[in-house]
Every structure is written in structure tokens, then in C-alpha cells.
Amino acid sequence: xxxxxxTVDVWFDSGVSSWASLGYPARDDEFRRWWPQDWIxxxxxxxxxxxxxxxxxxxxxxxxxxxxxxxMHGWVNGPDGRQMHKSLGNVIEPETVVDKFGxxxxxxxxIAVNAPWDDITFQEEGxxxxxxxxxxxxxVLRFATTYMVLDRFDPFAxxxxxTEGHLxxxxxxxxxxxxxxxxxxxxEMRSYNLHRAARAVEAFILxxxxxxxxxxxxxxxxxxxxxxxxxxxxxxxxxxxxTLAILLAPVAPHIAEAMYQRLDGRKLSVHMLDWPDxxxxxxxPELERSMSIVQEEVEVVSNQRQxxxxxxxxxxxxxxxxxxxxxxxxxxxxxxxxxxxxxNAKELVILEPADEFPGTVVVAKxxxxxxxxxxxxxxxxxxxxxxxxxxxxxxxxFERGSYTLHADGQTFEIExxxxxxxxxxxxxxxxxxxxxxxxxLDLRVTPELQAEAYAREIVRRIQQMRKDLDxxxxxxxxxxxxxxxxxxxxxxxxxxFIARETRSRSLTxxxxxxxxxHVVEWKxxxxxxxxxxxxxxxxxxxxxxxxxxxxxxxxMALFDAGYKxxxxxxxxxxxxxxxVDGLDAGDVDRITEFLAVPEKKDAVCPTCQASVAADARRCxxxxxxxxxxxxxxxxxxxxIPPGADACPVCGFALIGQAAPGTPSRTPCVACGExxxxxxxxxxxxxxxxxxxxxxVSSPTGEDEAPALLKDSxxxxxxxxxxxxxYRLFLIAHNTGKKGMIITRLFPQKVRERFGxxxxxxxxxSNVGKEDSIRPKDLEKLSLAAEQxxxxxxxxVLLDAIEYLVTNNNFLTVLRLVQSxxxxxxxxxxVLLLSVNPSTLDAHQMIRQPVDPRRPPxxxxxxxxxxxxxxxxxADGFHFGMNTDLRLRA
Length: 889
Known about the structure:
Blueprint: H1 11-15, H2 17-20, H3 29-34, E1 37-42, H4 47-62, E2 67-72, E3 76-77, H5 94-101, H6 103-113, E4 120-121, H7 124-150, H8 169-190, H9 194-221, H10 228-248, H11 253-263, H12 285-308, E5 318-322, H13 326-334, H14 336-343, E6 348-351, E7 361-366, H15 368-375, H16 379-386, H17 391-400, E8 403-407, E9 410-414, E10 419-424, E11 429-434, E12 437-442, H18 447-468, E13 477-482, H19 485-491, H20 495-502, E14 504-510, E15 518-521, E16 529-534, H21 538-544, H22 552-560, H23 566-570, H24 574-578, H25 585-596, E17 603-604, E18 611-612, E19 631-632, E20 639-640, E21 665-667, E22 674-676, E23 693-694, E24 713-718, H26 723-734, E25 739-743, H27 747-754, E26 761-764, E27 772-773, H28 778-792, E28 795-798, H29 801-807, H30 810-826, E29 830-835, E30 845-847, E31 863-864, E32 870-873, E33 880-881, E34 885-887
Parallel strand pairs: 1-2, 3-4, 5-6, 13-14, 24-29, 25-26, 25-28, 26-27, 28-29
Antiparallel strand pairs: 5-12, 7-10, 8-9, 11-12, 13-16, 15-16, 17-18, 19-20, 21-22, 23-31, 24-32, 30-34, 31-32, 33-34
């Protein structure tokens, strides 16, 4: 080996890298496939080195550049505009910004703030604005998916063209804007104007989707009936949000992925989808121009409302447009209802140039200066007298020449130049000039308009109270409004509107004290208040409306008749159901047929979180095994690998096999009543009937009865809903053990479902009732558990661990659990802790290796439920989850 004395410039390696990295000239197959490059990018410091060395080497070797396109990116400077240097103290670490705002807002800001080739003067406020934009998009997604889930909207049942007959102008407008956005983003991305593409997406999110379209369709999503109009709004929202997820994927991949999985999720990732094509048939440029005019006029009206002291909740009697341009007249004619809805006005009138606003009068205004020149000191007296004359009288006199005024024995000749005639609008009518015509706003308030405004104000306050109670959107309430009789009479005509907007099953007015569950006094109106009582029937209504043909009204009738769940319906006879007001024989037959079909519950894929059939061994979406552990073969006891459909030793098939001699009826796990085998709930007591299958078969091959919970022990149940934990609690309770439940569910609801009338229940709620504890008051919660255990030595069920973690520090909740466990151990009690692992962060869980074939001899038996529950005794500080997971700080 010897050193070469003369070397070429070190940039020569970079110059030939485009083909040397492909193995050329030793091999030319990859070279012909990939060379030259489509695009390269570097910073401004590489113009001499990276760019030019490749260009020179390519021209020398191949007589052409080795790249088709080249882009030079700019620098990111400090907030002071200078390059970041530690010596200058202006260095901002990316990790700091990411920890504060997230990855996607930082990416969106960096791409949108400047052209890629321009330097960026970093400003934290820009990242905050980007975060705000993405939060608005996420709120729109939550709004859409919430109502879609409630109405069981299936976006894949039909395509967009099938809803075309139900599309309103605002739907067609948004679809046109969406197709235009696709076209703009695609054009700007192809020309590397990434900042313009990102800004176009941001403008669509803020201006078109959030601030306009969602406001227009909110009322359509609130209707109870499943009509084509509401489904069309859902379809358009789905199209817009799905397209935004794809367009945002290169810029903000995390929120784009979350949106796609929530909306669609048929593929593993949004990045596996094709780039959307522009559908020219949905473009409506004329409609977009008309909507733009309406938006501008709505903005004008909003500004005049603020100046006139009229909030948007106060309706206007009349808005008139005079001398409208042809484009504006066409826009108002086509989008009249949209304009009136957005400005909250009752009537829109289009006036011709010669027309006047109703109530406009002519006013005579004497010109004091002109009169003063003629009559000097007498001018003030003449001006005052002219002000008392009718304008019509003066006009007629001026048509003949002049007007003769007599006063104090004197005669004054008033010339036409001494008086001006002006048009005056009625009081509280505002006129404003716009590029599209003159706008007249009638701000006068009538008793009817005042009542409607007060009704909207009451709706706003009740909605805030619903939010304070953390009610679901479809929850119903009973509302009592405390006010005087005069105000109640004013609101009487608006009673149905208030009840509909607030989902109040009953709405009453009173002038006495209100005894509702949640009462708020109006601080701005003395003696007025609102009381709200949640009815907690939304879950029952959701279950009942799953029955085909059962409307909301009929579901309400069932609830009013005392049926709170499907389990209660199963225990009812046909004669009892026929006795329910509002149900006919056809409804009863449909209910019976629905209940006769066994309910199929899907499992969740542990890899991609897709919903999969409960008996599936592999996920059809990602192809990964559904089980994380080996399954013991029922025949030879050999380990069957995860995902395998048959035993590799004896060939026993796991799918489609039924246990021989399966009884048709089995005893309820809680009350012992014989019920149909496979029932999910007991018709008598309502207890869940999940019979777990042993994780490891007993040596004799026979199923053993479930072991009783041991004293001085703590158990953690891994499940998506706290059904298995309640089943174990009922077993212990039926053996004579005293019990206490700590939950965020309404106590009466728990007692009705499980038939536990006198059971002590601690309700985690911010309402502040006697039987409730605020979720942040962990000390009080610990004291309640301690007092119960020291007195009753019973079993404590905690099914609100996720709610506590949401409202407190995770370590603080762990200390609470440890405190209760200590009291359990000292007082010979039992703790059941129900946890949904999907609600915990990844850093709160650690792996614990477990032999799937055989548990330790001294360990309590582990049981596995059909829906994925895992129960395990927790002997250490950490709690076992699914036998291989533990909570950690």
C-alpha cells in the first residue's frame, strides 16, 4: 500500500456520487433505472460544492446535469433575525418547541411561514398560531364524528353521487372549494411552492370549513330523523375531512394519521393512500363567487351589529339591499336562506335604485349661513320657525319660487338656496355603503324579537350548564327556570325552541326555589336562575334505537315504561310490551326478533387497533396474530403459536369447534337463575354473563369453578368496559361481603342496572352533591375508602382510574391506589381495580415476561374472558395487566 501523492478535489466524490452509488460503470442496470435524479436539495453553503461539483462531473462524463431539478433551502434564524449561535444566546432547541407545541405545529409553521428558499426568522407565536389551526381542525373532526357515531352513519354504504339529490347550495359550495383546494395544492407542490400549498390548506380549514360550513350545517346534524338532508351533510363533511387528512399528510403526518384512522382506517396508514385527483364535475365557480359576496355582506352586517350594540343572538326584523349589483342580486336570490341564517334576520328585501327604505321621510334643514347673510340678527329666529314648517309645504312653495314666512308682523322671503332637503331613516335603522349595494339594517326591537333573543340567551346558559355536568351530547335533562310571571309569559312562545335546543324533556317556569341537581343563579339578572337535572337515559335510548324501525319517540316510551336496558326487554313478555303506549304489534315483533339474535362482539387487534371478529386468529387488516401468547391445545395441551388456526402437534382446529355436550341453559354467575347459554346479560338481575375461559387448562381437562376473591388481596382487571370487574364484585357481594363502588357513573344508574339498592357508591363528579367527591380531592376519596374498609372489611371496586388520571398527576393516583391497597391488606378487605389499557400512555406500561404454559405454583389462578379481560392478583406495588403488563410511573 502506498499513498497517492496527487489527489483530485475532495468534492469530486460528491460530483460522481449520483452514479457511483448505483455501481456504475461496473453495472448499468440500476443506473439506467434511476439516473438522472429527479430532484436534489441543499443549503446555500453548498452552491459551489454539492451543486456545481455534480453539474461539472455530469457534463464531463455524460454531457448533461445528473439532476433534473434543484432546490436550495434557506436558514432558520433566531427571533432577532441573526443566525443562531450559542455565543449570541439566540439558539432555540427544536426539542423545546416540540415539547411545548408538538411536532405537527412546528412542521406546519416552518413550511407555511416562508418560501422554502427564503430564510426564516423563527417566532414562537407563529408555531402557536399553527397549533391553533390544527386544534380547530381537530375540533371540526370531533364535531363531525360525534354526530356520525350517534346516527350510525356509514360513509362506505354509498358514494357521494348517491346523495346528490339532497345536496344544498352550501354542500355544493364546499365540494367546489375542496376540489379547488386539491388543484391548488397539487399545482403548488409540483412547483415546490410548499408555503403556498400549506397556506391554502390553512385558509380552507379556517375560513371555508370551520367558520362557515360547520356553522351552516350544525342545525342539520341536530335533527332526530334520519333524512337525506342530514346524511348529505355528513357525506360532505366526510369528504372534506378525509381529503384534508391526505393533503396534510406530508406536512403534519401525526394529525393526518389520527384523522384518517378515526374516519376510515381501512388501510394501515394514510400514507398508503393515493394522492387525490380533482373531480371537475363538482367545481362550481359561479356558486363560489355568489357565496363570496354573501360572506362579505355578512361581515358588513356583523360589524354594524357591534356598533349598534346588537349581539348576534338578537334577531333583526329586516335587512334591505338597495341598488344591488347584478352579481349581488343573483347571489341573494340563490343564497337567501344562508344570508338570513348567518345574520340572524327575519326578512331580506331587495330594493330598486328608485325605492326607499320603508319609513324614510324628507327633512327640511334651514341653512343658517345663507339665512344669516340676508337677515343678520333675525337669522336664529327664522331658522327656528322654518324648523316647524312641514317639508312638503316648503317644497311646494319653492316650486313656485320662494316661501313667505310671517312672524311678529314681519314678512320674510325664504329662497330655495336657504333650505336643504334631506332623507332621514327611521330611528335605529342603519345604512352602510358596500361594493355590492347599500345595506339597511333595522335594529329596532319588538316584543317578539326580544323574547327570541332572551330564549337564545337562556339556551346558551343551559348549554354551559350541560358542559359543567360533563353530559353527553345526546343526554336529556329536566329544566326549571326560576323567574317572575311577566318574564315567563314573555318566553312562553319560545318554550318549545328552548326545550329542543337544550334536549330538555321537561321545561317549566317557576317563581319559587329550584330543587334541581345543578342550579345556577344569573348574576346579571336579580332573582333569575336555571336548574338542570340529568335524566341519564341516553345510554338506554342508544341501545333501543339499535332495534330496526324503533324511533326515538318509541325508545322514549320504553324508557318511560320502566325498561332501562336490553336485558330488561329480554325479561319482558309480548303482552307487557304491547301495553306500552306508543308501541304496536309490529314494533313488538321487531324487538323480539332483534333480541333473539345473539349479539356479536368484536375484538380489537393489539397491533393496529382494528375491530376484528372475536373468533379471528389473525387481523384481516394488518395480518398480525390477534393473540400475544401461545394458546394451550384443548386436546393435547401443546402450545399453539399466536395466529395459528390449528395445533401443530395434533392438528386440532381452533376455529369452528364446539365443546361436546354444551348445555342449552346455564346458571347466572351472580343470582344463579337458569338462563339461555351464551346470553350476555341475566334477564333477572342484569349481571354480565362473561364466562372466562381458563388461560391454562386444568390437568384433568375439566373446567373449574371460579375461585372466590381472597381477603387482603388486590386484583386488577384489564378490560375496555368495567363488566368483568362488576361480575366479580357481584359474586363477592352475593356471598355476603359488604361492598363499596367508586365510579364516575351516576349512582342511581349503577343501582338500577345491578339491583344494588342500598349499596354505598362514591360518585366522582364536580357537581358537589353529598354523595359525590371531586376527582381532584384524592385525600377525601382515600379517607372514604379507609373508613369503609375499617368498618365493613368488604370489597372496594374502583372503575374510574382513567378519570382520576385525567384530572391528576399519574404518580398521585398511584399513591392513592397504594394507600387503598394498604388498607385492604390491614383490614382483610378486597380491592378490584378496573383499567382500560387503551386509555393509558405507553410510558405508563412496562412488559413483564410470563411463561404462557404454566403459572407459578403459589400464584392465584389467572382467568381470561371472551372479550379480552384479564384478571390477576397484584402482589407487588405494580399491578398485573393481561398477565404481562404492569402500571408504572
